[in-house]
Amino acid sequence: MRKKQFEPLLISEFVEDTFHLPMHEQNYYELVYIRSGRGKQVINKFELDYERGDIFLVSPADRHYFNIQEKTHFLFILFTDSYFLQNRRQQKLYAWIMELMNDRGLRENKLVLTEHHRLIFSHLMEAVRLYSLAGVSQTAQWLFDQLLAIFGLYKEISEIKRLPQTYSLRLDSSISAYIHQHIFTPEHLQVKTIAQKFNIAPTYFGIYFKKNFGNSLRDYINMYRIELIEHRLKSTAYTLKQIAQELGFVDESHLSHFYKRTKGYSPKAYRQQLQKK
C-alpha cells in the first residue's frame, strides 16, 4: 500500500487504540510527534519503542506502521520536498532539511531526548497544532518559521546524540553529518569527494580530520559501520547476507571478517549473546 499526498504541507492528528493503516509506503515525508501513549513504530525491519514526547522521521523510501500498546495521540506533519524548496533562494537555505529527512541512519533509530528537549518540542508542536486547528493558511510565514525551528532542534540534537559514545572530542558537525548521511554510498566518502564538498585541500584533509576528530577518516567510518551492523544484528528480520549487501560488503564472509577484526568476535557470536539476554 502506498499513500499519496498532493499538498505541499498537511498537518493532521489521530487518537487511536489501533493504528488506522497497515504497513505502508508513501510519496511524501513525515515527521511524527507522540503527544501521548506508548507502543512501537515498525519501520523497515526495525521496531522502535515510543512514548509521550518522542519524534520520528519517515521518508518515501520507508515502509512503516505503528503497533499501539496504549491509546496514542499522534501529530503528523506531512510534506513534500517542494514545501521547503519553493524557490532558488530557499533551495540553498533549506536543503539541509531534505538531507535530514533522507538520512536513513536517523530514520531507523529513535532520537534520545532529555526532558528539557521534550519540553521545548512540546511547546513547538502544540503551537503548530493549534495554528493548524485555527484553519490558517498552511503557506503562512509564521508556520514555516515554526517548522524550521522544529527541524533545526532535531538536527542539533541528532548531530550530538548519534555519534559513537567513544568520541568525547570536539566535532565538526557538518562533516560528521555528511558521513552519516552517505554511509550507504561509499563512493561519496572518498577523501577527494569530502574535501571538495567542504573546500579543504585533499592533501590536508587527513590532517584536518584527525586533528578535529581524534581518529582517521577510515577509522571513524568503520566505527559507524560497526554501529550500523550491530543495530541490524539486534533485529531478527536481518540475515547476515542482507546486512552485507546493504552496507556494501562483498559477501557475508567479508562482513564477518571486518566485524571480527574490529571487535574480536564474530557477528554471529554477538547475535547469540543478545539472544541469551
TrEMBL record:
Superkingdom per UniProt? Bacteria
GO: which molecular function terms?
DNA-binding transcription factor activity; sequence-specific DNA binding
Keyword Translocase in the entry? The reply is: no
Keywords assigned by UniProt, alphabetized: DNA-binding, Transcription, Transcription regulation
Signal peptide positions (record) = none
Which stretches make up the HTH araC/xylS-type domain?
173-273
The record's annotation in PANTHER family points to: ARAC-FAMILY TRANSCRIPTIONAL REGULATOR
Q: Know the name of this protein? A: AraC family transcriptional regulator
Tell me the organism's taxonomic lineage: Bacteria, Pseudomonadati, Bacteroidota, Sphingobacteriia, Sphingobacteriales
